[in-house]
Amino acid sequence: MTNNAERYISPEGFTVDCTLVQADKGTGVWNLIVQMDEGREEKRSQIFHTPSFPEVEPRILLDTHTWIDSFWVSPSRMIYACDGFRLWKGSDGQFTQQRLSDRMIFKVWGLDDQTIFILGEGGLVLRSDGDGWRDISIPDSTRLFDINGPSLQHIYAVGERGAFWKLQGDTWLEIDVQTNANLLGVFVDGPDKVYVCGESGTCFRYDAGALVNFLTQPRWYSAVTRFRDKIYFGAAGRGVDVLVELEVVPFKPTVFGQRLSSGDCLWSCGHNSYYKFDGSGWLRKDFL
Fold first, then answer.
1. Does the first or last residue of the chain, that is N or C, have fewer Cβ atoms within 10 Å of its Cβ?
2. Angle CA 231–235–238, to nearest 5
3. How far apart are alpha carbons 57 and 38 in whole angstroms?
4. What confidence score (pLDDT) does residue 5 get?
5. Which residues contact 221 (CB under 8 A, 6 or more apart)?
């Protein structure tokens, strides 16, 4: 298995990127694949589900000639996806579309079937409790990139220029984490223990008000999660790194770590591939 910073190009001349991954139970997984031509005029986005990796081949649940930025699958297996100004909701090819804002949306994530969040341009945050959407945007025009938390009492969001916010009811509390780096990934590991990563090697832990910066590699980190007893960071084309005491060190440089997700296995993705780590070894699946 090799790692290559160049984008994967299909025989038809389209870039093929596995941009998102979400763990299912057991060895199941969901993936988002985005294809574009050289002029970025033709686009195709597909959400795949693999119920048992690698025994069962991926099955397409959504196939559209738009650019899906983000998706999230709820515990009841309802799929939410966004493509600019629209939210897609459905499953297995049956979807409805809804325009929610005049500001572009690009991230959807939920705590459960009744608590779902959307992030967008200009500080946009929308929240649904199962009956419509309401605007709970941050009081800033900063773009937010990621959101995570184990409960409504411990939801955090991160974004441009060191943006780090904690949700309190329907309002947001800004927390100064002493950096102007763009923060790209967040994982809340229990009450008020938050792992964050971003550009220029930025990785830190915010723990009940205390800020701990980690020694890192000179790279961009775009994802962070816990798998079993360790914290892992996705470093895009540089692979997957792991936290050892207060240092983030290379763990698997020959995979792509654009996004991470964990459950019974640790999943990563990037270019036209996704990868499964079961605690002892890695397996890879290529699209096209």
1. N
2. 125
3. 28
4. 52
5. 184, 185, 197, 198, 199, 201, 202, 203, 233, 234, 235, 241, 248
Q: How far is CA 284 from the centre of its chain?
A: 19
Distance CA 164, CA 63 (A): 34
CA distance 98 to 95: 10
Residue 15 token pair? 């870039």
Which tokens sit at 227?
Answer: 């798998």
Say yes or no: domain 76-286 is CATH 3.30.360.10. no
Query: Position 21: which residue type?
Result: V
Q: Is 178 in a helix, a strand, or coil?
A: coil
Residue 128 and residue 80 in contact, taking contact as beta carbons nearer than 8 Å:
no
Map out the domains of the chain as residue ranges: 76-286
pTM of the full structure? 0.94
What is the per-residue pLDDT for 208? 83
In this predicted model, what pLDDT tens digit does every residue of 235-262 receive, in sequence order? 999 999 999 999 999 999 999 999 999 9
pLDDT beyond 80 at 229: yes
Q: For residue 77, which of 17, 25, 5 has the smallest C-alpha distance?
A: 25
SS3 140: coil
